[in-house]
Amino acid sequence: MTAASSAPLRFRRLLLTGAAGGLGRQLRQRLKAYCDVLRLSDIADLGAAAPGEELVPARLEDRAAVLALLDGVDGVVHLGGVSVEAPFEPILAANIVGVYHLYEAARLNGLKRVVFASSNHVTGYYRQDEVIDAQAPLRPDGLYGVSKAFGENLSRFYFDRYGIETVCLRIGSSFPEPKDRRMLATWMSFDDLERLVMASLTAPVVGHTIVYGTSDNTTRWYDNRCARHLGFRPLDSSEPFRAAVEARQPTLDHQDPAVIYQGGAFVRTGPFE
Amino acid sequence: MTAASSAPLRFRRLLLTGAAGGLGRQLRQRLKAYCDVLRLSDIADLGAAAPGEELVPARLEDRAAVLALLDGVDGVVHLGGVSVEAPFEPILAANIVGVYHLYEAARLNGLKRVVFASSNHVTGYYRQDEVIDAQAPLRPDGLYGVSKAFGENLSRFYFDRYGIETVCLRIGSSFPEPKDRRMLATWMSFDDLERLVMASLTAPVVGHTIVYGTSDNTTRWYDNRCARHLGFRPLDSSEPFRAAVEARQPTLDHQDPAVIYQGGAFVRTGPFE
Amino acid sequence: MTAASSAPLRFRRLLLTGAAGGLGRQLRQRLKAYCDVLRLSDIADLGAAAPGEELVPARLEDRAAVLALLDGVDGVVHLGGVSVEAPFEPILAANIVGVYHLYEAARLNGLKRVVFASSNHVTGYYRQDEVIDAQAPLRPDGLYGVSKAFGENLSRFYFDRYGIETVCLRIGSSFPEPKDRRMLATWMSFDDLERLVMASLTAPVVGHTIVYGTSDNTTRWYDNRCARHLGFRPLDSSEPFRAAVEARQPTLDHQDPAVIYQGGAFVRTGPFE
Amino acid sequence: MTAASSAPLRFRRLLLTGAAGGLGRQLRQRLKAYCDVLRLSDIADLGAAAPGEELVPARLEDRAAVLALLDGVDGVVHLGGVSVEAPFEPILAANIVGVYHLYEAARLNGLKRVVFASSNHVTGYYRQDEVIDAQAPLRPDGLYGVSKAFGENLSRFYFDRYGIETVCLRIGSSFPEPKDRRMLATWMSFDDLERLVMASLTAPVVGHTIVYGTSDNTTRWYDNRCARHLGFRPLDSSEPFRAAVEARQPTLDHQDPAVIYQGGAFVRTGPFE
Amino acid sequence: MTAASSAPLRFRRLLLTGAAGGLGRQLRQRLKAYCDVLRLSDIADLGAAAPGEELVPARLEDRAAVLALLDGVDGVVHLGGVSVEAPFEPILAANIVGVYHLYEAARLNGLKRVVFASSNHVTGYYRQDEVIDAQAPLRPDGLYGVSKAFGENLSRFYFDRYGIETVCLRIGSSFPEPKDRRMLATWMSFDDLERLVMASLTAPVVGHTIVYGTSDNTTRWYDNRCARHLGFRPLDSSEPFRAAVEARQPTLDHQDPAVIYQGGAFVRTGPFE
Amino acid sequence: MTAASSAPLRFRRLLLTGAAGGLGRQLRQRLKAYCDVLRLSDIADLGAAAPGEELVPARLEDRAAVLALLDGVDGVVHLGGVSVEAPFEPILAANIVGVYHLYEAARLNGLKRVVFASSNHVTGYYRQDEVIDAQAPLRPDGLYGVSKAFGENLSRFYFDRYGIETVCLRIGSSFPEPKDRRMLATWMSFDDLERLVMASLTAPVVGHTIVYGTSDNTTRWYDNRCARHLGFRPLDSSEPFRAAVEARQPTLDHQDPAVIYQGGAFVRTGPFE
């Protein structure tokens, strides 16, 4: 049986892009346990390679660099690109052109699956009193959200045409702890993030799956029932932080779009001219 | 920041109507912790005011009284009115005219949110082998259920027109313990009732939310997935009471509408002529 | 076979309430053909009885009068009551108390079916770019709409409990011709109104059916697919009036709630204090 | 109150068919606690009767034998018949003709409820990256699955016509422990099987209920929210076995239909000519 | 290009089973125009073969005969079998065993598509005030309906496993004209039947399609929107016959299940013992 | 009343992009009747300006040019960009960067509504035996389809954030007549195209509406019931062309993805490297 015809539980060479970012640094420590070699990429400084790591800096808008980046890997966790609301040009370069390069590289290298960091901001214009699932029509809350929606649609196409599977992780807010009342709904612990990434990498069949990434919070806007086949069950919760968060933010301005919509402050960022 | 533009976590003056009733007496003890002053109202005797309490008896069909009742409050938990199947006249006075007065008072006093005790009896004519959610068309099981449906619709209008938020609590059966086999499905502990009321009062955005109020029972007819944004998670269950309940009621008559329909005995109460 | 056990195609005595109103005057002329006696009721002047007519004025809030009104009839078309946004008191009297009296009278007289004029205003707070069906949650646009929702819920109860069937007609705008651009969506010709009423009276089984009443207009907000069992197919259309209507109203103010919401001007009527 | 008008919690004589099979042997030990007499049937050897047991071997295709088999029982758990993919003739005899005999016997003996072992193979042609519920259109994965679909439809008819209730258990994989990665999704412990069977036998009202039978596995393809009224809550999980299972089956062939579809190896069994 | 890889518009040898029945005699006249040879089969007398016809009588329960029957054909319209409520044995033989033989013969002969006469009786226990589509859970109204459900499920399996396409025609009531008020909803003219059969035979891709077969009646219980890809548009209607039908059947007994349920008289046929 | 606060029926200056393309040339002739000045843009030769026309060539990837292009217009029909499957670079330039420029220009120029030519290829990977509506998750069939999905998502954002309305036209196949059997489903006559464009420009409220653009074909894959508020009713049909089309293409290869999927030949175009 060749690698091409199997879904591995342990990877020979796993690629983590965006490895210098907030979540990247977390996963860098954690993913090493599941692979022989962890290839790390970013445009920011990655520091020195630890044993079992290899550093391959690459700009996502550089097609040749991305082709090389995926050469020889049997799994990809793609966190790379712009991860906040920003002017169109950098989003275009990294999140649109770059994601296209990533999927072309997956196709040309015969890769079978990608774990793609999408974002809750693809549906950020739903209200905070709505509960949605992965089939709700997209309502992105900014150019960043629109670019993540592009990645979801592009990966759907690569599955339908080429059979390359993708799990789109609509990550909420992954920080050491929830910072504000919005994050009581959107927070995901680093441990739950690791669980979600590993379930996405190793579930037997994922096709093109969309899953929201949060912990098992009591307050929730997202319904993941369409993604139970992944085998992701969050074990943490924002609830132990509730009292502290509420004490810091005892009132909310109901006229503020950031309070009304799920996207939070993203819905009032920009425009950038 | 003015009260008008914020959702408080702690209330200066919280109004509890129906405070002399079964659930009212429970909440009277519990809500005091969340406010400076707890204003209590009923048409039945409320006893003496404890520290931090103020007693404001009012008939709901008395418009001026209800206007005064809501004056100066920044939160309302409305349990008042008829809470069982009854002839039309008292239901009309308290649950239809009275609820209209309540919302007019909220509008005129600039109140931003109401927690409204609706009832599972707005959908009592679903069968006990059906599981429904808050979007199921209403099927009230009596005049009481019809009047609670009126309150739900009226509060929807006050949200759409005036922005006054409401959480409609379709309360099941809140008693010290489940009394019969129907209550294995519908029972809500007083602790869970408190959790539900407080989540409804303090969730950042509720718009017009409908939620069923039961504990985390193993037998369930209601699906609250549309209301997870409230942050209500019941922690109790009817299950520990199952053996005792079943021992008391070992057989059921399948010809009895009260066994077939979710509304239980309500579906065979009346008509009142 | 007794009358009680059959749905007639021709009525011995058909009752039309609200017979002095705009639609009542239309139906008065038209329903005579389907019954031996047409009983007409209103609180306004009904003029003189034509052959085959009998005039029975009654106030809907007068229980005894309504009981007498339904005595001996084998079909009811209930247009009576307040049909525009108004202060709460007259709506309460006619559309809430009155409708309760109507259904009690139906129950006590053994009537099997009611055709009830509900209104598009039970869902008037949907936007004009939404298409809804009879299962959409109610969003009434005023006290009038709330009162019609009460009638729908009450009649549901009378079907579930007593087996009295009702067709709720959510009538759009029935006038000689559409008057403005909103009516291009909501208009129903008088001929289509007659078709709808007769289908509702004579369809073999209706249970509790909700149907929107409009002609076969090109612009539509309502989807009647759940009511095809009625056998109602509109044959007219607002389209021939489009050019004239658009010429009279060439621009619309997009800030105006009456332009945004399906309820039109109702959404900015009131409050009445 | 007669037995015919009540749903018992304890049975006088409970019938278990297929009692010599894998699940039958488990339930034989467990069901005795809930009845005075446990009648056991199979075509394979049942060994000796223990106290409180009675052995009634019967071929399901023998109408008279099945009529006698159900005589005097007040509850049936029907596991009998072919339980794997097989040629059409034995499936026809046991699972089609036999199930017809079972329901005729229930009707003629006045039995009020049947617990029927259907199978996950009635929907085996859904993909392993899909999550379905009991309302998903059937997609059987073989003749066995088609025969179980027959049983589901036949029992629906016996409920609609004769009021005989059925719970259709779409059992996943009930073994001492999950054997392969597919069973991480489909596994049901014997304790959870017992819970499911007893909930199905004793829930007050079941009408015609379809429920998937698995433990509370982290990886799931089935959504049982339409069956919560049964009061079945699995307490076990395949998760503790995950590491061992994955170690034994570290890779999967993505070209293999048994990996792609929920039915597993059933989707490549047969045809039998 | 071989026949096996194409969907023909004109058939070399088209098989019509049940050719001596009511609909069979109609289609015998009409299908000749679309094929070189029309093979006709039945167990009843087929008379003499006209030019271009060949007569191949066969019992459906005779596997070898059915294998021979499908030899050399490139299209099948399967009307054969029992077409009314009947005792189980003949239904079993023709509609269960027989349909299995038909699909085995299709598989072994390399046939690519079957047009299968299912029936509205697979959903006959829906009420006459409900409108359903092809995804509504089945509610057969008798053994005949259960057997047609078997055919639908079996053909679904043959599509998922072997790629043999089927269009399941849930035929209403195809007669020269509607005979009673139920048929105002269920009637299909012979011309519309021909249109439906030909659309089903020749649409480019049908997979496994379920379609209700009625004319464009004003009264309808069925919603075919999931089958528009077939290209079937009925051109006739029961409406011109309404007055005559209603005159013959002016009242209906609302206690009669045949009036309440879509299956009509089928819901009170049997049981056969 | 200012232009900004009204939806006009007649435009002062209407912009048509892509005016030199196949559909552009059709609309150039037709839109003149609805505006004082028709501004035409393309990168291909537009010939000479007719009276009432003004020619403003612009490259969509040129931000300044697009800003100027929308200056002074009160309506936009955006057909510009790549309209077939193509390498990524031109699609990126025109359909991604270009559409972003278009919406920025709309925002900066205070334009209130855009009619945007999306494409049926945003859902091209649905099968030809499926019927979908505008809420079906996207399944683009190529880079072109992915780019049109980008435009739909971007325009959703501009509506949610800035209130700029868009009608996304998922145009099928608009040609003088249907060329092949796929177009029997997807064809839209030029007259129906004009009706659709004008309904989209002038409907009172469109928010963000998605509509499939085909004629009233008998064979259909698309359900436009969510867009009836537009007032678009196609009057033409592919049916009169059926015989000729079928005669030219009597067989289809069922192994060909272009036969199986709605996207037709697009699903086998590319990849471009």
UniProtKB/TrEMBL annotation, chains A, B, C, D, E, F:
Keyword Oxidoreductase: yes
Keyword tags: NAD, Oxidoreductase
One Pfam family recorded for the sequence: Epimerase
A GO molecular-function annotation: oxidoreductase activity
Domain NAD-dependent epimerase/dehydratase: 15-176
InterPro entries given in the database record: Epimerase_deHydtase (IPR001509), NAD(P)-bd_dom_sf (IPR036291)
Family: Belongs to the NAD(P)-dependent epimerase/dehydratase family.
Protein known as: NAD-dependent dehydratase
Organism encoding this protein: Caldimonas brevitalea
Organism ancestry: Bacteria, Pseudomonadati, Pseudomonadota, Betaproteobacteria, Burkholderiales
